[in-house]
Design brief:
The protein is α+β, with helices and mostly antiparallel strands. It has two domains: about 120 residues, GOLD domain (Jelly Rolls, Sandwich), CATH 2.60.120; about 55 residues. It is about 40% helix and about 30% strand. Strands 1-8-3-6 form a four-stranded antiparallel beta sheet. The N terminus and C terminus are likely disordered. It comes from Saprolegnia parasitica (strain CBS 223.65). Belongs to the EMP24/GP25L family. It is found in: Endomembrane system; Membrane.
Length: about 240
């Protein structure tokens, strides 16, 4: 159980860590800026390496923030870091690249930050820079208010999904009940129909038999009437003529 909890904490820590990296070419006499939202209770690590240059292997890093809304490209207030970062050329044999940079804690200063890579001090064609950022939890057991809000939102979504699944289960149970009801009703009606068919068969047979008997009796009486033989309508006395 303890190992499982440790794995869950480690997974949560990794999930709360945001890493991004990019390779950018900064022309001479210019700069490139990027904005990112950094949550509270984070430690930000900024790493820079100049991998190609026709001049010195250096680049100026400036950082601004935090801002309540995404800053514009021209916005230059809230500056808290401005330094020329120098790295050594890549090792041609091992292709190793030296990275330099700095880190800072947001604590209660979460918000939008702007990071600029400046090459205004160089007139050469440009420098290819590897720039990476890493925003991880400062302490594994301390979450920022954004994380708490996201957790509450996720829990609300989970409860909504659970409610929907429970409603679907009730609907399926109702459908199953109705199917069983119709099945039992069909069985009862089938038995009733078979019983009715049997009664109708015997009733019809008796009717046909009675009609046949009556018809036979009528035929016999008519034959006796027209033949003049004894019977119900025959005379027992004989006439004598004078």
């Amino acid at each position: 159980m303890a190992a499982r909890n440790a794995c869950m904490v480690a997974w949560l820590f990794l999930a709360m860590t945001m890493v991004s990296s990019l390779m950018v070419v900064v022309p001479g006499r210019s700069k490139e800026c990027f904005i990112e939202y950094v949550k509270t209770k984070r430690t930000a690590f900024l790493r820079i390496a100049v991998v190609e240059s026709q001049d010195l292997y250096d680049i100026r890093l400036t950082a601004y923030g935090p801002f309540a809304t995404p800053p514009t490209e021209e916005q230059a207030d809230m500056n808290f870091f401005n330094s020329l970062v120098t790295t050594t050329p890549p090792n041609e044999n091992s292709n190793d690249v030296q990275h330099n940079g700095f880190n800072f804690d947001t604590e209660h200063r979460g918000g939008w930050y702007k990071f600029c890579l400046g090459n205004e001090h160089s007139s050469y064609e440009g420098k290819k820079v590897d720039f990476s950022t890493n925003f991880g939890l400062t302490k594994e057991d301390e979450l920022g208010h954004e994380d708490e809000w996201e957790a509450a939102t996720k829990q609300m979504h989970v409860e909504t999904v659970k409610g929907s699944l429970e409603h679907l289960r009730e609907l399926f149970d109702l459908i199953k009940y109705e199917q069983n009801y119709y099945l039992m009703r069909d069985k009862r009606h089938h038995k009733t129909a078979e019983s009715n068919q049997s009664r109708i068969f015997w009733y019809t047979s008796i009717q046909v038999l009675l009609v046949a008997v009556v018809y036979g009796v009528q035929i016999r009486l008519l034959n006796q009437w027209f033949s003049g033989s004894g019977g119900l309508l025959s005379t027992t006395s004989s006439r004598q003529w004078a």
